[in-house]
Write a structure and sequence with these properties.
Keywords: Metal-binding, Zinc, Zinc-finger. The protein is an alpha+beta fold. The chain has 11 helices and 15 strands.
Amino acid sequence: MNAAQAKTIKIAEYLQSLGYSPAKIQGCNYWYCSPYREERTASFKVDTNKNTWHDFGTGEGGDIIDLAQKIGNCSVETALCNLANIQPNFSFFQSKNILQDNPTTIITDIRPIAHPKLIEWVKERRIDLHLANLYCREIHYQNQSGQFFSVGFRNDKGGYELNSPPSFKSCISPKEITTFQNGKDSCLVFEGFWDFLSYLTIQKIERTKHDVAVLNSTANTEKAMNFLKTHREIYTYLDNDDAGRKATELIKSANLTVYNRSTQFAGYKDLNDYLRGKKQLLKKQVRKGFKL
């Protein structure tokens, strides 16, 4: 594939093939959370008319080749090879999440985490590789866009939550919570598996004596309610953001005894950021004086 051919591929289709869906759509402008760095608020814009992108968080932008280079951290030649695997007739509106909804996604291999890039990703998360392999696997899968691999965390229905550097998050359906039942009347609640592994790391243990519910997304909070209602005490370690607070309030609304442990890592987005010492960036408040 040459550069001219690559530029005929829609950036929105390219992002969708990688598992990224827009957070909002405003006319021809599609807004995403950046595909190559972590962020909670979508500041990555794709102009579908011009087929260009601009990341307001970094000030970078360009065409699809520039984006493929940025995501792959690679040369133009490698970016063109990667783009050659994108099917030009791929329907962007086929699904909201290609990995979750596309029935042609096939798991080709499940193995202990061994790929150097994923080992480095686990280390970056400050999680011991042995601990990660007790709960996660290296998942190899393929769909109509190609073959991929990620760290995978199994849920209660046999699906896998996927995560790989720099900020890829998705799942292989079905989407569900993950529970660990130890016959206790107390339950720990985490939003994602990195937070669960962070808790174990901080406590210097490989297993907890409590029951555990990993939501795998605060959107799954309602799915966890029946399990949580079987416990006398609930300890929530959810994110210090609006979604985490709303999920905690939803659990409290079921008249459960809830202890909000997110206050223990105030100033950090989540428990893994606390483990890594990655403080939350706060918006600066601009104080205005009196006009003369």
